[in-house]
Specification:
alpha/beta; eight-stranded mixed β-sheet
Length: 256
Amino acid sequence: MFSDSFFVDSPTWRIACVISLPDSGYRWNIVLLSHWFWSHKERSAYLSLEEYFTKAWMWICRFDFFGHGESDGDFFDITISKAFENVVDVRRHLQTHYWFSSYALFWSSFGGNVVLNVVHQYPSTYAFVLAKCPVSDYKKQKVRTLWLEAIEEREKTWSHVFIKDYNTPTPVSYDFFDELDRYNVHDFIDKLDLPVFLIHGDQDDCVLVDQSIKTANLCPQVTLHIQAWAGHAFNWPWEKEVVSQLCTDFALQYFW
């Protein structure tokens, strides 16, 4: 497998990317991979997907969202709209410098919400979407994780809101919360007209599997795999292998 690192220059920030292709033989298809909150393109889960996809002769482009990993920006200022622009900018760069017959997307959690919104806005641009434990309903998620209380406090004091990381509080601009309702997947998913493969752990206590069940019920294009005993991160080696194999098998149905 050959890999090359580069930056995509957007009007206001740089996006760190890695493109990888198989050692021998390949299809002119590419999957764009990115991550969830607090994560980055070098996590082992994305490296596992890269290995599986390139063995199946697919190109891969991993990249860091604004304010994450090696990309420009402060995490405090991340919003869904900025992440949305990152996806569009990376694909535009690839279109300019390469020739691919088909594009697809893989994302997790927060990123899963981003890419489902991207394909809603650009329905003929991508062959399919793969998403692991995506946030489909931010209205519900906001209340369930007590974000609503934090937002009310934000409105009173005009101080930043905190999202709890696993170990330390992480400050995020109120702009993130202010735009959440504009990106609710359940408001448009029934109109989506391309294949979507969702993987969700039945033990996920961060984004409940009920969200993906509702997504699948609303849209006949959605194939849902509920993984027994898996949580939100799919951190165990066997979980990464399951995700990588299922996603590769699904991709090969639509890439040629």
